[in-house]
Amino acid sequence: MNSVALVLPFLLLSCASSPAGKLSLQRSGEGPGEARALIWTASVELGVETEAFESTVVALSDLSRSLGGYPEEQSIDSIVLRVPAARLDEALAGIGKQGEPIARSISAQDVTMLRSDLRVRVDNLKRLQARLRELAAQGANVHELLEVEKEMARVTSELEVLEAQLALIEQQVALASIRVRLIDEATPGPVGWVFYALFVGVKWLFVWE
Questions:
Q1: Which tens digits make up the pLDDT trace of 94-118?
Q2: I need a labelling partner for 111 at 20 to 30 A (CA). Which of 28, 86, 180, 197 fits?
Q3: 23 with 128: CB under 8 angstroms?
Q4: Where are the beta strands (DSSP E) in the chain?
Q5: CB atoms < 10 A from the CB of 10, how many?
Q6: Cβ contact 189:156 at 8 Å
Q7: Closest of 128, 154, 127, 140 to residue 6, by C-alpha
Q8: Can you give the pTM of this predicted structure?
Q9: Domain ranges across the chain
Q10: Residue (of 5, 11, 51) closest to 186 by Cα position
């Protein structure tokens, strides 16, 4: 029997018997010293006078570029910045200088295991893809070549999907996301100051600290 016919069923059986239908190979890139993969997301509400909204958005956009990032999306009163994760604190400090910080939140999503799993699956599929190319190069009858090509198409398609997912994860880990929303920093008019003075007076009469 041709070697292609012997090896191909073995490869297919290995894929079917391993978890999630993947070839069971030694894991790579999971050394004990591997850094955690974190996706950092921050949200900031910034008090700014309405007439300064446009210039503030421009300044924030320039800030992201100066830190090695870029503005991902923006509108009249908000902007989403992408900056290197290592410079997140620096970016937040710079944002705070553009107005009056009202609220801020920071969160981190740990995707270490997800990234590691994707890397392993991509590596395994590349190994299988290389082996299938070897089998195709050996030459065989038409039926066997068709089987190899069919499996090659499946592996290539799955590999492209996983590589796209891995690239997205790597980008999200490398670049933190900061959404900045501009809040109108309104100043009380003459009537507003009168009511404010009344409020302070009433508070003084009834509430002593």
A1: 999 999 999 999 999 999 999 999 9
A2: 180
A3: yes
A4: 38-48, 70-74, 78-84, 100-110, 175-184
A5: 9
A6: no
A7: 140
A8: 0.68
A9: 1-209
A10: 51
